[in-house]
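>> received
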Amino acid sequence: MTRATDITPWSRQDDELIRHSLHVLGHDMVPLEMPEPDEIRHAGQQRRRGRLMALVGGLAAAAAVITFVVMQGPGRAAAPPATGTSASTRIPKSPAPTHQLLPPPTATATPPAPAGCTLAAIIARESLSLNFEGLYTDEVAAVTTAQQLWDALARCDAKTVLTLAHRDKAALGFDDQRWEAQLSTPAGVTLLEGMLRTLSTRPGRRLPPEADTDTITWPRVSDQSGDPTAWEEAIAAGIITPADRELMQSQTGYIGWRLAITAQGRWLAVFNTGD
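>> returned
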């Protein structure tokens, strides 16, 4: 226990020392600057505005989720949108193909031809058939018209060929000859055989000037004269000879038998060799 006699008396020098130390300490402290009242009010407004924007954003997100769930309908699971996309994003599907290739032709029974029909004999001897390789499903109308022509030709039915020509206003040659005059002469047999052999070749297509649809043309060499195989097809069908090919290639290109039908099925024309 400390006794009163152990306490050192406080001297004037002690007092001066304490005062001097406090004075030095006061000079070393950095004065604290208080902001102005306007600055305090502005900072408060900024904080309130930030809280308000956060609240509005949260409400908008909640509304989007509710709308998405409602659009799903009852009983349907509402799948969350994919990462990085919004709920309203729609991923477009790949467009479906507008057309597909027609399947290969199948053997069909042709009505019996009358006795002496040379075209029926040619079909049987050379195994000819209507060729529509490479055509599409949206061109089936052209194939239908070609099949009507083929069936009439296979029966040597000049009357039906004439009916189809009048129905579609098909031109005969570049000078638009009269069908009746041609079919009523011996040259009519040559015309029908040329059409038959032409339809047995692989067709091509072109877009004629001032036309709004493709035109299917037999043989395809008439539009693809740069393809050696197309020339061979025409020779194999008997509508030109190898000598014809050499002559045509040395001049303006293919000018042999041609038959044209629009993709919508209208028979446009048939052209003879040399027209």
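>> The longest strand covers residues 258-262.
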